[in-house]
Design brief:
By secondary structure, the protein is mostly helical. The chain has one domain. Helices cover 82% and strands 0% of the residues. It is built from 2 helices and no strands. It is flat and about 30 Å long.
Length: 33
């Protein structure tokens, strides 16, 4: 995946509170099982 594609996805996630909350919950589950 190119850097521009990654940044585009990142912007989409940051502009969507629901996606951002889901990502945070996923990371918490991954880092703290």
């Amino acid at each position: 995946m190119t850097l521009s594609a990654f940044l585009a996805i990142l912007l989409k996630v940051l502009s969507s509170p629901a996606l951002l909350a889901g990502l945070i919950a996923f990371l918490q589950k991954t880092l703290h099982p």
